[in-house]
Amino acid sequence: MSVTTASPSGSFVLLQVGKRRFALSARDVAELAPPVRLHTFPHDSPLVVGVIVRRGRIVPVYDVAPILIGRASGTHRFYLIASRFFGRVAEPSAIPLHGECELATGEVFSAASDAPPYITGTLVASGERIPVLDLEALVTYQTVAQSPASAPETPS
Amino acid sequence: MILFSVGRQLFAIAAESVQEIRSTDGLASASVELAMPDFAKVTHFFERHHHNWFIVSACAHFRLPVTRPTLVLILRRARAALLVDHIERMAEISAVYSLPRAFSGDERRWYRGLAYLDDNVIPVLDPVGLLTPEEIARLDFHSASLIAEREWQGAAQS
Predict the structure, then answer these.
(1) Which residues from chain A sit within 8 angstroms of residue B105, using beta carbons?
(2) Which domains occur in chain A, in start order?
């Protein structure tokens, strides 16, 4: 991960899904993980495509690409491990990414009135306008582009 | 644990949850076809200990591609038997991990949790999750009607 701005507060991780970049609050992000093997099994939870094993824990993987870019994730380079809260319990969650991440700070503007509920604002960093994601809203967003119940196993 | 496969998918089930393993051929003569088009996962039933036991297709239950099952796992704690392809092996599994909360669908009923064995994450079946009490009640009603109809036809012929 390359750091562009080293401000500890109000920092965002810029992540690449497909060819688009999004920002996620750095507070939610635990680490970047290599593209380890995805384990799949039958289930019917939307967006969840399987699990990976990371630091001895079983971590669910959400393919958010159908929502963000309109198609399944395909080959990815990293997993971003972020915390998703269920009440007070934090559960690590993995999101496949297609490119490197950067840490950035910048001014955050309100999201457009017609923005989907998982975009909470627009980060302006290095002259670029980047949608800021709300992870919880994103993974619970219902869409017809959701993943099927059992995705094929994709060893990597 | 007993590790078994359905198509390319590996599952585990506690050995104490399995009462008996039979070949599909061996059970064919003792089972009765249960034609319920809106309930495709249960194809047959058989009588055991004065109760009807329902044969559940693992493919249909888990929404997997259709395969050719060769074995039937007759379960304990559930009046169900599961059609599977192969028994892979027995394995000692020291820990079953909770299903992550991200999984929020029917799988919370299907699985006791996940096992991690030889670099594989394997779902561990909960036998009780194969059929809900409502489904069993419906199957009981349908199978009892079917038996009554057969007995009536048998009596009418004799």
Answers:
(1) 43-45
(2) 2-139 (2.40.50.180)
